[in-house]
Amino acid sequence: MTTRPLRILIIGLHYAPEATGNAPYTTALAEGLTALGHCVRVITAHPHYPQWRIRDGYGARTTRESIHGVPVTRLRHYVPAQPSNLQRLLSELSFGLRLLTTRWGRPQVLLLVSPALFSTAVALSRARLLHRRLPVGIWVQDLYSLGLTETGTGGGRTAALMRRIESATLRHATGVAVIHDRFKLALVRTLGVTDDAVHVIRNWTHLPEPPAVDRAAVRTAHGWAATDTVVLHAGNMGVKQGLENVVEAARLADARGLPLRFVLLGNGNQREALLARARGITRIQFLDALPDADFQATLRSADLLLVNELPGVTEMSVPSKLTSYFSTGLPVLAATDAGSVTAGELQLSGGGVRANAGDPAALVDAVIALAADPGRCQSLGAAGQNYCHENLSQAAALTRFDRWAHCLSDESGLGSKARLF
């Protein structure tokens, strides 16, 4: 129990039952702060990611429910079926506009989750205009301006405009939490946020400890042969993942008659294009998103767990899948640039190896080398799991968030004067 319970409002575009991206972390944060004794409310959208379709059973203009003791208000917003950059912008802005007319109650601390940047900017503007003493913390999971620059989308003028919007939004928050030290450097050096306003709170392993897995049964159910070396990529299939590299690696494995199977598990706006590109290739498999228990069993039944990034993606994001990967005790293979955040995480953890991004032949060669060295695979998996247990625990992260929320509240001077929600 925290010494001073706070009334905390969390606003973010993604929440349970979404199981990928930011949703598991936002959900765990809300539930964890509630367990610590805080009075937490969440305002979010209807579940729609990564399918970009509102899930069956949801979709009313405004709904309210309670999930594991957390009151959740859901707002209907524009969800594009085939999201381009412009459509994503309109989607975020439509959620932001709904926030302008939604009752917030009387929170003592407001926590905004970015992405989504534009709805975060709208919510921050409302807070500064109508709730001037309300402390606002922004939890940054991805950096938009770096994303545009590193993926080469939008052009230089768009990236510059995005940098100004992102900088202004983050500089006007009471405080900012980021998930990696490299993000903090980018905020301070590139976006002009003061050093003492930025706190590093690492993401954690959000999957519960699973029961024993019958690997043979799971592999048989997915059609994986005992002789296959299964390389599994789990999560979003978007532009920054650059998964064309994996499709071409599978094409090479076909041509060379190698006993490899590349598995892409999940969804995303590039999935249909990847399916079309992979037509006729036998050594690649696409799996739909799975419920948590099946997801964990599938993850643990692979041989290698893959992070694949577009060449040039070095600073924009920390793959949230790494925390789940490390928890399995399996080796991680990352097709990423040498100077990327992902490469740094692998080196720090000792839990995997790197291949050059955008090089299918290098990816295939790395898989073959690991498959031929079971002892090394075991050592890598054990190192990653140990790193996960020592550095990526949910309890440690929640303790830091609890302290951060109190620091934000102390800066405002609100104390206990605000009324209950």
Summarize the structure in words:
With 421 residues, the protein is α/β, with parallel strands linked by helices. It folds into 2 domains: 7-204 and 393-412, 3-Layer(aba) Sandwich (Rossmann fold); 215-391, Rossmann fold, CATH 3.40.50. Helices cover 42% and strands 17% of the residues. It contains 15 helices and 14 strands. The strands form 2 sheets. It has an 8-stranded mixed sheet with strand order 3-4-2-1-5-6-7-8, sandwiched between helices. Helix 12 (341-349) links the parallel strand 13 (332-335) and strand 14 (352-355). The longest helix has 19 residues, at 394-412. The two termini are 20 Å apart.
SSE blueprint and pairings:
Blueprint: E1 7-11, H1 23-35, E2 39-45, E3 62-67, E4 70-75, H2 85-100, E5 109-114, H3 117-130, E6 136-140, H4 144-151, H5 155-171, E7 175-178, H6 181-189, E8 198-200, H7 215-221, E9 229-234, H8 244-256, E10 260-265, H9 271-277, E11 284-287, H10 292-300, E12 304-308, H11 321-327, E13 332-335, H12 341-349, E14 352-355, H13 360-371, H14 374-391, H15 394-412
Parallel strand pairs: 1-2, 1-5, 2-4, 5-6, 6-7, 7-8, 9-10, 9-12, 10-11, 12-13, 13-14
Antiparallel strand pairs: 3-4
Helix pairs in contact: 1-15, 2-3, 4-5, 8-13, 11-14
InterPro entries: Glyco_trans_4-like_N
Keywords: Glycosyltransferase, Transferase
Protein name: Glycosyltransferase WbuB
Radius of gyration (Å): 21 Å
Structural class: alpha/beta
Number of strands: 14
CATH superfamily of the largest domain: Glycogen Phosphorylase B
| CATH topology call of the largest domain | Rossmann fold
Largest beta-sheet characterization: 8 strands, mixed
Shape descriptor: globular
Low-confidence stretches: 413-421
- First CA to last CA: what distance? 20 Å
Tally of alpha and pi helices: 15
Number of domains: 2
Name the helicity range: 40-55%
Percent strand equals 15-25%
Mean pLDDT over the residues: 90
* Assigned CATH architecture of the largest domain: 3-Layer(aba) Sandwich
